[in-house]
Amino acid sequence: MSRTIGEVILDLQNISLRFGGVKALTDISFDVREHEIRAIIGPNGAGKSSMLNVINGVYHPQEGAIIFHGQERKKMEPHRAATQGIARTFQNIALFKGMTVLDNIMTGRITRMKASFLEHALWLGRAKREELEHRQKVEEVIDFLEIQHIRKTPVSRLPYGLQKRVELGRALAAEPSMLLLDEPMAGMNVEEKQDMCRFILDVNDQIGTTIVLIEHDMGVVMDISDRVVVLDYGKKIGDGAPDEVKNNPEVIKAYLGGGH
Amino acid sequence: MPLETTAGGSERLQTFPRLLFHHARTRGSAPAIREKDLGIWQTWSWTGVAERVRALACGLAALGFKRGDNLAIIGDNRPHLYMMMSAAQCLGGVPVPLYQDAVAAEMLFVLNDAAIRFAAVEDQEQVDKLLEIREQAPQLEHIIYDDPRGMRHYNQPFIHDIHALMEMGRIHDRNHPDFLDAEIEQGQGNDVSVMLYTSGTTGQPKGVCQTHGAFIAAARGSMETDRLEPAGDILSYLPMAWVGDHLFSFAQALVVGFTINCPESSDTVTTDLREIGPTYYFAPPRVFESLLTSIMIRMEDAGALKRRLFHYFLGVAKRCGADLLDGKPVGLGERLRYGLGNLLVYGPLRNVLGMSHIRVAYTAGAAIGPDLFRFYRSIGINLKQFYGQTETCAYVCLQPDRAIKFDSVGPAAPGVEIKIADNGEVLVKGPMLLKEYYQRPDATAESLNADGYFMTGDAGFLDADGHLKIIDRAKDVGKLANGAMFAPNYIENKLKFFQHIKEAVCFGHDRAMVCAFINIDVGAVGNWAERRNIAYSGYTDLAAKPDVYELIRECVEQVNAALIQDAMVADSQIHRFLILHKELDPDDDELTRTRKVRRNFVAKKYEVLIEALYSGKASQFITTEVKFEDGRRGQVSADLKIVDAKTFPTMQKAA
Questions:
Q1: What residues of A are in contact with residue B268 (Cβ under 8 Å)?
Q2: Residues B151-174, mean pLDDT to the nearest whole number
Q3: From the candidate CATH numbers 1.10.260.40, 3.40.190.10, 3.30.300.30, 3.30.390.80, the one assigned to the domain spanning B477-654
Q4: What is the pLDDT of residue B655?
Q5: Residue range(s) defining the domain that contains residue A44
Q6: Which among B38, B150, B265 has the least Cβ separation from residue A140?
Q7: Alpha carbon of A160 to those of A164, A187, B56, B591: distances in Å?
Q8: What does the pLDDT read at residue B88?
Q9: Distance from CA of A146 to the nearest CA of B (A)
Q10: C-alpha distances out from residue A130 to A13, A108, A114, A118, A136, Å
């Protein structure tokens, strides 16, 4: 592969997140480099999704610093994250069920639409031009994910695996520099997983998008990620290349229990 | 005007490249090729296509492609791949389209057999396949790909982007402006224009070499028969390696000058069909069947009023629709009712199917059920059948408008001579015959007889009006003990037209009577059983139900009643049959992968059942080993009933 992993673009320093008395994350530090595929793994309740929510601004950690593209980030709303180039998919698919695939993916472009509400309503020049531009972008995503055949199908009629793909499509339509994927392969069969892996690798390779993903399928994680961070009970217990992590005794203990 | 100049048989236009540049000169702005890309139909005019073909041809020449070289074409129906065919032809080379879904090892044979040095492929998938077998095909020098997706890291010097090739070609063209025209000028009508590999059910595939003249003659013949016009559209979605696609999407498109439309992907064909609304359409029978099924299922869910309207007018169409299409006299009342039906039902239905503009639709490749065939004709779609092989440019018989007989494939097409050999084999002769099998003089000699007729290997006969009826593969045709002809496939097809019968195997060669194995269609019969509250546990159980036997017996007897109508096959009535306890399955080697019965294997495996059929037993116990999909083996056993079917006295045929 020719893609070169670049500088650190996201640096998380000593993050702690509490919900009342519950410690979701305790003193976690790790970084994400440009163009890499960074996996977050850990047993159930380890704090993986919380971590993702911290990155895109849904949760605000009580302690620690988030440095994105060299700037320390203060309290931030999720839509700000979106405009800064962070897009995500969700563990439980969060699409507009009644809308078509095309329209759903179009919503991914919303942060990039500049024409005003009135211009859109009256279909004035700028709105029209913009719409054409966005549609072009959306069609490129559709082509990329090979979902032309369901372009006009309402999402609710699609099987689970395809819905997941559409959700990835919506995230891609935002042309993010960083993509957060929350269990993109949960509940898929082997073939669907292979497809999804290929798309993730293609996105990373061809568009150069940095990817942070949470995944339970260890085979997938070990195969496609460059570096892996392991959480357990809200603490970081391992960080490094897949092979390192696999042989880390703490990680083995967390996954297989203490007896081994 | 264009029709005149292209159809006029002008001597100048004896090769496909000349035809292409002729269209570009005389009607350059007319649409030649459309492709749906990023959701929008993009159009290339004839001028645009000619410009690209020119660039591609010069590019190929710059890479060292020479007269007599073969160019492999691998991929879905993409405009650039069709253009590559033309480009190779411009240089006096021969395009060799391959089936795009073949695995690498299967492609290897053709690559080596045809000594392929150049390959034009669609995408990364095909490039990977070629790279996989490159060691074993050392003569392969250059790979040109159309879709750059995923190709960023392929920096081998012998892999070229098609746009880079065009750029190379444009430079070459500027430096040698007369080069290509001189090359095209050298091309003659009796040069080989394409090489199509036959599927090779026996032995290795053979490359069928067809000349420009052959395909042009075939295309002109169908153009005359069907009055094809330049202002037409066809959806090109069947494999480019198949002779039919080469005839429809390449030869006829270039001769007539209509527009070919390439679908977005193989999954979007139905949508694309609706958007294009072609005037000219081809599909194998199973496509027509699944379309009809989906209509019927959707109608079941419609409101009561719509449903009643639909069924009422379908009844009207059934009575007079096909006759109207054939121009036969129909009473005024029926005409009016049909007109109303057209407004309310048939028109909208055709629209939903994407068939509103269809002037001619063809089907071939397998037997089409008469009900299915009549349904499409009755709602005003001019569905017809043709007959032909790779060796005959898929051009032997065409059903002419207004003289359709559903069980024949029509009279000889213009320019074709048909003769029936003494053994019943269909022999054909005409300008569309193959030049040879590539480097296989032995096979060429075997298939062309001394008088220059091509031996089709099909058995058939010409009826009183000169329409050809195909009954079977000649090698399968046997004789009954009394000397009458026995054509198993013909009878089996008649059985399989019943929705309850999925598969049938008939026996009768050297026997006194015909007996049959039946496989029921578990979907259709299961549904039928449920509606009658017949409980069953699985295929074996269902197949053994007395009610099911009764159902199948009725079907068999209807076939018998049909068989006596034709003196040739009246002796082949089915006397006894049984329903097999398991479905014939490719995993158990009983069917080929294309789901054709392996007759001899089945006969041997179920010898004891055949014995029981002919010895008059009422039942027979059998145990059979089956392979499951996961590779495990199991056994199925059953005590099979054997049933007599009513046969009809063959004396009636004299009346």
A1: 148-149
A2: 94
A3: 3.30.300.30
A4: 37
A5: 1-85+178-183+210-260
A6: B38
A7: 6, 8, 43, 35
A8: 97
A9: 9
A10: 39, 14, 8, 14, 10
Which segments of chain B belong to CATH 3.40.50.12780? 2-8+15-281
Q: Which of B38, B150, B267 sits opposite A202 (nearest CB)?
A: B150
pTM of the model: 0.83
- What does the pLDDT read at residue A1? 45
Q: How confident is the model at residue B629 (pLDDT cuts 50, 70, 90)?
A: low
DSSP per residue, A206-234: II--EEEEE-S-HHHHHHH-SEEEEEETT
* pLDDT for residue B9 is more than 60: no
Structure-token match 């031996």, residue found: B455
Cβ density class B608-617: b for 16+ within 10 Å, e for less: ebbebbbeee
Tell me the β-bridge partners of B421: none
Mean pLDDT of chain B: 90
* Confidence bin at B242 (pLDDT 50/70/90): very high
In a domain, A201, yes or no: no
Q: What are the per-10-residue average pLDDT scores of chain A (260 residues)?
A: 76 91 90 93 88 90 89 80 87 90 92 78 81 91 92 92 93 93 88 91 90 89 92 90 88 70
What does the alpha-carbon distance between residue B306 and residue B149 come to, in Å, rounded to a whole number?
A: 47
Pick the CATH number of B2-8+15-281 from 3.30.565.10, 3.40.50.12780, 1.20.1250.20, 2.60.40.10: 3.40.50.12780
């190709």: which residue's tokens?
A: B151
Nearest Cβ partner of A151 from B39, B149, B153? B39
What pLDDT was estimated at residue B293?
81
> Which tokens hold the place of A54?
């911290």
* C-beta contacts of B557-561 below 8 A and 24+ residues apart: B557/B645, B557/B646, B558/B498, B559/B491, B559/B494, B559/B495, B560/B645, B560/B646, B560/B647, B560/B648, B561/B648
The ipTM estimated for the assembled molecules is 0.75
pLDDT of B4 > 70? The answer is no
Query: What is the mean pLDDT of the segment spanning B595-624?
Result: 89
A205·B152 Cβ contact <8 A: yes
pLDDT of the residue at A94: 87
Which residues of chain B have a CB within 8 Å of the CB of A135? Answer: 39
Size of interface A-B (CB pairs under 8 A): 30
| pLDDT bracket for residue B654 (50, 70, 90) | very low
Chain A residues in contact with B267 by the CB 8 A cut-off are: 148-149
**How far from chain centre, in Å, is Cα B118?**
28
Cβ atoms of B405 and B368 within 8 Å: the answer is no
> Dihedrals φ, ψ of A61, to 5°?
-65, 145
